[in-house]
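Table S2 (text version). Query chain:
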Amino acid sequence: MDIDIKEQALALKKIIAGSKNIVIFGHVNPDGDAIGSSLGLFHYLKNKEKHPVVIMPNDFPDFLKWIPAADQIINFEEQADEASIFIKNADLIFYCDFNDLKRIAKVAVAEKVTKARKIMIDHHPQPTGFADIEISDTSVSSTSELVYEVISEMGEINYINSDFAESILTGIITDTGLFHHNSEKPRTFEVVAKLIKAGGSKEKVIKNVYDTFSYNRLKLLGNSLYNGMQFYPEYSSAFIVLSKEDQEKFNYQDGDSEGHVNLPLSINDVNFSALFTEKDDSIKVSFRSNNQFDVNLFARKHYNGGGHRNAAGGKSYKSLNKTLDEFVSLLKKYQKDIKKQN
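Corresponding structure-token output:
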């Protein structure tokens, strides 16, 4: 951890000491890292006898609802009035796993009236400068890992427990795709070891996240591979399409396609994969790569999105067919970059 973050952690320690009512935000369509980092902070602050509240812009997948205190998360989409009261009365607000207020959707309107100090903790590139303190480190595996590091730098490890450990483990494990990406540094595994020592169970996290599929979710997976995947060996690429028709057929629930974007990378010589999910007003696009091809830059340039070098996402506002046709054209354009090996 660099010296700036060490100094920020010490400044944050003083701010927390003088705060009582604390709100923690995660981003819209929360994933494992947003939920894990937010609940990790929640448990740390509870152990310091603060009054933290976690607010998410909308609901999150069922396979994350086992995490300790997940049932206490406020869903702004359904509990806007209650959430707004907590925001108004907050002394301090944390923004976890995002660096642009656009990522909290309608919550940003309620957030504008707050006089609370604002602390961003995130591992994505190019923060937009909205917080009083921006703790940003793109070298870590996940925001959850960064939360652990910040608490460690504050000298507050004595305030973590097994609930904290399992929250943070969930964020690390999900954001690295079971350590398939963003996990090259030994420090990530050192943190995992410390979390296990603190009472977290890696086996419990993996079982609850990855081994609790519904029957329809497993059938959806089979359909995605058999009917929804397209393979372009000449571009070392493959992608999966999840149409609205497929979603209806298999009773799609949020989170049911978790991990689908990674599957094409299992094909020999595939370096770049994508998942196209048809929504009412747009096409949600997810990207993964396993070499130096920078999907963050690709998503920013072509899909109004971003993320990390090997994991990113965005949106298309064209029809599904037009989106796919244009993507295949881009594969041809980027063929040399995609086919490069590390």
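Notes on Table S2: Residues 215-339 form a domain with the Diaminopimelate Epimerase; Chain A, domain 1 fold (CATH 3.10.310.30). The CA atoms of residues 229 and 322 lie 17 Å apart.
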